[in-house]
Design a protein that fits this description.
single chain; alpha/beta; Aspartate Aminotransferase, domain 2; Aspartate Aminotransferase, domain 1; 7-stranded mixed β-sheet; 4-stranded antiparallel β-sheet; 12 helices; binds pyridoxal-5'-phosphate
Length: about 450
């Protein structure tokens, strides 16, 4: 390979062993290189990424059991959409949908339609499209115009909801947040719904603060509204994170298909479903909630199997990994893991609050610790986040959504890999960061001098 002097080339760490000249970064190289050399080059460069276990910003799973890894590797070359060739993978998807529909108390879980998706984002788009089509049908039946659809949701929704509204031409009617109120309730919804509302969106475990909207009360309001005005407005529950927690830890909490108006639910398999990135689920209450126009029927499984997705090809391995978790852990296994995650969440929240430097935005019911700096500090949550980054921790700082944007918070998502020891280490690093920002000498002790036992829970 010829010598390239420009900076848009890579001089690899071990270049003298593998390469006689730099490799272009943005142009395809003219020649080949040995597989070991390519591996080493990329492997080394990726060392610059953040450390996965210290990424407390993401809700996404970072660890699976070796047996799951084995199944993933064995199935990585299967294109999931080729149902004709990979009948059993399609059957496994169907079983997962049925198990999730059962978990969400569908009146007839085996008949509840659904789909695996690339994540909750695709699942939400699909569900909301279904509601848009159903609303159009209703308006057509009444002989009314279907030119001005709207969707009612809180400012606490994930960006994908705004994306849906823009991409699919639906007016977003957004309930603003305010200081101390970061979720929505029935009274908020009542102010914005009308006959053109395709759906009301509600969240179980919001991205910003880990709280939940008043789903049961919104359902009650929509039932009354239907009786009074004849408006048949459905709800979609975004259970991206909460959908694998609430059924195990809060079984009596009503947020799912036990509520009449809840017609569709999404959940991220790759969040607390405990599967690596690339998996979401959309589940409908019953067949009538999914308009036929959106569905392509295939009949090679012995019965009619509805499929609908926004993309076409995707890997099979995440769906198979979800099935592995569902049968391997069962309800009791998921419950134990979620209990442990919540114990660690409460432990961390209590400890950070006790430091006197932070106040909690809310008492966690899901594994999210959202913190505000106590009054009178001369530094910001952004400074704390930056300092923690120097120690490798990835803890995001941000302002809350529209209406509460003056409030700045730090958010820590607790996942299965975050044990009690890590909580102690993080707290020590937070203290050290604040000490430094306050101009005090750090009280932090080197790791080997820190007292305490290892806790496993
Ligand atoms: C409440 C909520 N909805 C939707 C999403 C998008 O999920 P995904 O990343 O699975 O597409 C997220 C992601 O964090 C979320 O928290």
């Amino acid at each position: 390979m010829k010598m390239k002097k420009k900076i848009d080339s890579i001089a690899s760490t071990y270049s003298t062993r593998y390469f006689s000249s730099p490799i272009p970064k943005y142009k395809m190289p003219e020649g080949e290189m040995p597989p070991d050399a390519a591996y080493q080059l990329i492997h080394d460069e990726l060392n610059l990424d953040g450390r996965v276990p210290l990424n407390l910003a993401s809700f996404v799973t970072t660890w699976m059991e070796p047996q799951a890894n084995k199944l993933i590797a064995e199935n990585i070359n299967k294109n999931f959409i080729d149902h004709d060739e990979y009948l059993q993978s399609a059957e496994i998807e169907r079983r997962c949908i049925s198990m999730l529909a059962g978990l969400y108390n569908s009146p007839n879980a085996k008949a509840s339609p659904g789909a695996s998706t690339l994540g909750s984002s695709e699942a939400i788009m699909l569900a909301l499209l279904a509601h848009k089509f159903r609303w159009k049908e209703r308006m057509k039946k009444k002989g009314k115009s279907a030119s001005k659809p709207n969707i009612v949701m809180g400012a606490d929704v994930h960006t994908v909801w705004d994306k849906f509204a823009r991409y699919f031409d639906v007016e977003p009617r957004i309930i603003p947040m305010k200081k101390g109120k970061y979720t929505i309730n029935a009274a908020d919804v009542a102010k914005l719904v009308d006959e053109n509302t395709i759906c009301v969106g509600a969240i179980l475990c919001t991205t910003f603060s880990g709280q939940m909207d008043e789903i049961e009360k919104i359902n009650g309001f929509l039932i009354k509204l239907k009786k009074k005005k004849g408006w048949d407005i459905p709800m979609h529950v975004d259970a991206a994170s909460g959908g694998f927690i609430a059924p195990f830890l809060h079984p009596s909490m009503k947020w799912d298909f036990r509520l009449e108006r809840v017609k569709s639910i999404n959940v991220s398999g790759h969040k607390f479903g405990l599967v690596y990135p690339g998996l979401g689920w959309v589940i409908f209450r019953e067949k009538a909630d999914l308009p036929d126009e959106l569905v392509f029927y295939v009949n090679y499984l012995g019965g009619e199997m509805p499929t609908f997705t926004l993309n076409f090809s995707k890997g099979s391995s995440t769906v198979i990994a979800q099935y592995y978790n569902l049968i391997r852990l069962g309800k009791s296994g998921y419950k134990k893991i979620m209990q442990s995650i919540m114990q660690n969440t409460h432990y961390l929240a209590k400890k950070l609050h006790a430091s006197g430097r932070f106040s909690l935005l809310c008492t966690p019911i899901f594994p999210v610790v959202a913190l505000k700096l106590a009054a009178g500090r001369k530094y910001s949550v952004f400074d704390v986040s930056q300092k923690l980054r120097e120690r490798g921790w990835i803890v995001p700082a941000y302002s809350l959504p529209a209406g509460a944007q003056e409030e700045k918070i730090l958010r820590i998502v607790i996942k299965e890999n975050f044990g009690r020891d890590m909580a102690d280490l993080l707290c020590a690093d937070v203290e050290a960061a604040c000490d430094l920002l306050e101009g005090k000498a750090s009280k932090e002790k080197p790791v080997h001098k820190r007292k305490g036992k290892h806790h496993i829970c």
